[in-house]
Design brief:
The complex is a heterodimer of chains A (250) and B (358).
Chain A (H helix, E strand, L loop, with lengths): L23 H15 L5 E5 L7 H4 L3 E4 L5 H11 L4 E7 H7 L1 H9 L5 E6 L2 E2 L5 E2 L18 H4 L5 H5 L7 E6 L3 H19 L5 E6 L3 H4 L3 H15 L3 E5 H6 L1
Parallel strand pairs in A: 1-2, 1-3, 3-4, 4-8, 7-8
Antiparallel strand pairs in A: 5-6, 7-9
Helix pairs in contact in A: 1-8, 4-5
Chain B lengths: L3 E5 H11 L4 E4 L6 H10 L7 E4 L3 H13 L4 E5 L1 H16 L5 E6 L15 H5 L10 E3 L4 H18 L3 E6 H5 L1 E5 L25 E2 L6 H21 L3 E4 L6 E4 L2 H16 L4 E6 L1 E3 L3 H8 L4 E6 L5 H9 L5 E5 L8 H16 L4
Parallel strand pairs in B: 2-3, 2-4, 4-5, 5-7, 6-7, 11-12, 11-14, 14-15
Antiparallel strand pairs in B: 1-8, 6-13, 10-12
The chains are: A alpha/beta (250), B alpha/beta (358).
């Protein structure tokens, strides 16, 4: 019998701790598939965040580093500067990247640091049990916005791709989603491109993956994916926000 | 290599770090240590493999240090008191992940934004951990520009040898003053760094740089192991200078710039017939407990001279086990005790002792 689908080689056999229906598993797989396809596992070093994917260091079979909350782009900067021939990626959630780590994110981007950032946006703090994130939607009910996110007192969500693409430096910024097969396939291409850019020495690539959190959204996995389509994607439109290869081509 | 040059303390640290093989420096401007950052900015880009980066904050700088330290390469950051407070989270992670790195604190007065004049008021922060959790830094306290250079070299070696962050705890006076210095030779230490993340090369299991252990049993074991290592450091690495202690009736304990003032005070007191000596801790952690305990058998009292409201005095009291009175001679906020003040305090202690107050 022919094998039609396998676990990527650059994932370990450790069982994932994620909740049922959580897309982190899909996104880990897409990252690992990109690493496998490009044949770079042996020289790749991943930086895990603080948040649900804090234990990503157990799941990727390449060398891994666990960073302090929000500091992954700074840690990755140090590593890339020390080991310019290696491939360094960070894997971060919305609280990590867009709240506590915003300074590190913006400055790594504006230095066009030659790293790959995988940014998983599920509009909530999952690990701590469902608090408001910088990307929680207006009106979204969370543990710390129990009456719905009030934009008058709690501000508006941050659109990371739009914000970073206002900078001159970053090489490639794209937003994708993993709520259906078509989107998963586009996400796969984007993630692979973000790694290829680094190998080609192009600089900072960030792929925002619009994700879901059925557990803390209080929805079934199926309903959560519908919520992504109906609520998240309209606020966070998918697409390429910056691609300096276009400028180079001109 | 062994020529004598005239250098600022801050620059001597930088040059010694380069000679120790440090090729990665991450900093953020803050007075009174900025010459160090500027020296690195000038030199590192001209050296093969040299990386100088002005980070967006002290927080980022220490996390860049964490990243490089994880790759096993020698790395340094420097700052002054308020900036060192910002680095504490990262320092705790570096200690928790058992990584070698060198952190320089050219202290200024505090708390808060404080001032820009010299201070030793980060003693507690440096020697008791500083950040969260069970750990120590190896803390070296230079007292001259020569030691700024020599102890920087030593800090890199000790950090590598014991897989623990080391701090050079200087102050604004030492950072700014110029003195002749013989720059140290490059280090010959080689240590195994097979724990580093450099890419598996598909030849080994993946290495993980981490300080997260969700199982309390495992975390406790890690901390026990670290403290076993600390016992070895305490056994091997205590350094101090003993000055005119052979016949001393009173012992001044002072480090860094305070020890320079103390020595001048001791000369003046000896001319007046007072038998006063000095124990100058060079390692603040591990603290020279035994030397002070032994001195307690011989002397009638101790004077702790500090540029703080009295921080090291607690370690002096612990070390001498309440055998003798310990008095404090201090200035704070960027002020420096002068020779007269040290003499006055020592004479006052002597009168109390002779008057049978203790």
């Amino acid at each position: 019998m022919a094998i039609v689908f396998e676990k990527p080689k650059s994932l370990t056999s450790k069982e994932l701790h994620y909740c049922p229906g959580c897309p982190h598993g899909i996104i880990h797989r897409l990252v690992a598939e990109a690493i496998d396809k490009l044949g770079i596992e042996g020289k790749t070093i991943g930086v895990a965040p603080v948040g649900c994917s804090v234990m990503a260091y157990d799941y990727f079979s390449c060398d891994m580093v666990e960073a302090a909350h929000g500091r992954a782009p700074a840690v990755a900067t140090g590593m890339k500067r020390a080991l310019p021939d290696n491939v360094i990626f960070t894997y971060q959630g919305d609280g990590d990247l867009a709240s506590i780590g915003m300074a590190e994110t913006v400055h790594a981007a504006t230095r066009n640091e030659n790293i790959t950032v995988i940014f998983v946006n599920n509009a909530i703090y999952g690990m701590t049990g469902g608090q408001m994130a910088p990307t929680s939607l207006p009106g979204q009910i969370t543990q710390t916005s129990p009456y719905g996110r009030d934009i008058k007192t709690q501000g508006y969500p941050i659109r990371v791709c739009e914000l970073l693409s206002a900078l001159d430096a970053p090489y490639y910024i794209e937003r994708v989603a993993v709520n259906n097969v078509k989107n998963v396939l586009s996400a796969k291409k984007a993630i692979e491109k973000a790694f290829r850019n680094q190998i080609d020495g192009k600089g900072f690539s960030l792929i925002e993956v619009v994700s879901a959190c059925p557990t803390n959204w209080g929805l079934t996995p199926q309903k959560a994916l519908e919520w992504v389509e109906e609520k998240m994607i309209p606020y966070y439109p998918l697409g390429v926000y910056k691609d300096r290869s276009k400028e180079e081509a001109r | 290599m062994s020529e004598k040059v005239l250098m600022k303390g801050n620059e001597a640290i930088a040059e010694a770090a380069l000679r120790a093989g440090c090729r990665h420096y991450f900093g953020y401007p803050i007075t009174p240590q900025t010459e160090l950052t500027a020296y690195m900015a000038k030199k590192l880009p001209k050296i093969e493999g040299g990386v100088f980066l002005q980070a967006e904050s002290e927080i980022s700088a220490i996390n860049m240090v964490y990243g490089v330290a994880g790759t096993g390469k020698r790395v340094m950051t420097s700052s002054s008191s308020p900036g060192i407070s910002l680095k504490q989270e990262g320092i705790s992670y570096i200690a928790g992940a058992d990584l070698p790195a060198v952190i320089v604190n050219v202290q200024r007065g505090g708390p808060g934004l404080g001032g820009i004049q010299p201070s030793q008021s980060d003693y507690f922060q440096a020697t008791k951990g500083g950040g969260h959790g069970d750990y120590h830094l190896i803390v070296l306290a230079p007292s001259s520009v020569q030691e700024m250079a020599d102890l920087t070299s030593l800090a890199f070696d000790l950090a590598d040898k014991y897989r623990n962050p080391a701090m050079l705890l200087a102050d604004g006076t030492l950072g700014q003053m110029m003195e002749p210095v013989i720059l140290p030779e490059p280090s010959s230490l080689t240590v195994d760094k097979s724990w580093a993340v450099t890419g598996t090369g598909m030849k080994r299991e993946h290495n993980i740089i981490n300080s997260l252990y969700l199982s309390p049993e495992v975390l406790e074991k890690k901390n026990f192991e670290r403290y076993e290592r600390y016992k070895v450091i305490e056994g091997n690495e205590v350094r101090y200078e003993s000055y005119l202690m052979d016949d001393a009736e009173y012992c001044i304990v002072a480090f860094g710039i305070a020890a320079r003032v103390a020595k001048n005070a001791i000369s003046a007191m000896r001319q007046r017939g007072m038998r006063v000596g000095l124990i100058r801790p060079i390692t603040l952690w591990p603290f020279p407990k035994k030397a002070i305990r032994q001195a307690a058998d011989k002397v009638k009292g101790f004077v702790s001279v500090e540029l703080s409201m009295g921080q090291m005095i607690e370690d002096v009291k612990l070390a001498e086990e309440c055998l003798r009175p310990v008095s404090l001679c201090c200035r704070s906020g960027g002020m420096i005790p002068n020779v007269d003040q040290v003499i006055e305090e020592t004479v006052r202690l002597q009168k109390q002792v002779e008057g049978g107050e203790f």
